[in-house]
């Protein structure tokens, strides 16, 4: 009621004081009165979100509580998108009613008083977070005017007249810059000085990092607005977006070492959000080589969702070093091992001595993508799976380049052979499937029966078994080297070897019953196929458990 009463009294006084003014002073003062009358009260001690329409000003006002003569106050305005214009106007106490006297002298005096009752004490244009601090009087009213001339947008405004009980926004250190202390091909290491708020409220404060390829952001709400404008749906604040939250299809959540990351796939590249608690150093992983990234650190109050932005920085990752080129020779097998963290690329080169060339790849571990070019033009590119052949036709002395790239961080390996098309094949003729099948109904406490497909070519098959625990299945299957042969197995694991073929592929199936097993025990079975060259091909491992009771 105090605000409303003061508003009405001020309007009444202003109306009385301008009745006898000249026409020009009436228009000027009435315009100011109109602006004041059509404004809203700005809440004290609360962050207010204000939506602005293009070229339409919006006005808010505030007064002090009754009984306070002079008091400090501060106003913080945070643009959440485009630059805006905003200003603070001071409305002083209006003069009293006119008294009879010299008419001309009175007119001049009233005109001067009317124009002096309103003054602009602060004005700003831009998209930075700005704070104005001043002293307010109970006999004065303050009008805040906001204008966006570029497009519709929104801002946040925080007014407080209580500067002794703490701050809504976390404090920034004296030097709010982010230092780049290390740059690699795929990583950038950052460090920044601690916020004083972290030392006082460690449990409710955390640092959040935003990484993108476009530009720096001067506030957290500006960053969120940019992400939303790209078609992304985000929660109100970054702090909340890292709470349990239903992610959009274009978002990926990663939890590692108590750090929660969200990667947003947007048209202009990735936007990564990482909150790392109160640590003030961080190494950003999995970046692209030779790419410029922009880094912004925000200190976030988890209780109020208020945040403050450090001064953003940028860095360009190092160029990927040229991979060493290895020459391929006719019929020679090369075993390539790639470290997913250090060496992700490996290049091979082959000069054709025949028109038809045959490339063979056997994936041993991990995930690898192969890219083959002939005289600089791509002829094949795909992810490898198991055993893969490429038969290519070109000209004599054509130069083939083979680039192998690991697609995961763990180690990957592959065997590669290049040879003329008529060269003796490296690997045996393969069946339609390399899966091993087990028959549940034929399982007993002491035996299991398995089957696998053969070919029209007489070949040697060796069966091996290994006793494992149930919690070891995933690890055994993931770590298995599909290129290793029986020489890597313990002799006690060998079950048998047999020769088998059938000219009719429909009947090229063989079964084997493995006996002498323990009841209720899990076994891992492997079958190795040997061709004329002696290089084995390993079937997909099969885990089977014997019956516990018979």
UniProtKB/TrEMBL annotation:
Localisation per UniProt entry: Secreted
Gene Ontology CC: extracellular region
**Record's signal peptide:** 1-20
Under the heading Gene3D superfamilies, the entry gives: Immunoglobulins
Predominant localisation class: secreted
Q: Which InterPro entries match?
A: FN3_dom (IPR003961), FN3_sf (IPR036116), Ig-like_fold (IPR013783), NDNF (IPR019326), NDNF_C (IPR045805), NDNF_Fn(III)_1 (IPR055271), NDNF_N (IPR056225)
The protein's job, in short, is: Secretory protein that plays a role in various cellular processes. Acts as a chemorepellent acting on gonadotropin-releasing hormone (GnRH) expressing neurons regulating their migration to the hypothalamus. Also promotes neuron migration, growth and survival as well as neurite outgrowth and is involved in the development of the olfactory system. May also act through the regulation of growth factors activity and downstream signaling. Also regulates extracellular matrix assembly and cell adhesiveness.
This chain belongs to which protein, by name? Protein NDNF
What is the scientific name of the source organism? Irena cyanogastra (Philippine fairy-bluebird)
State the organism's lineage.
Eukaryota, Metazoa, Chordata, Craniata, Vertebrata
Name the gene behind this protein: Ndnf_0
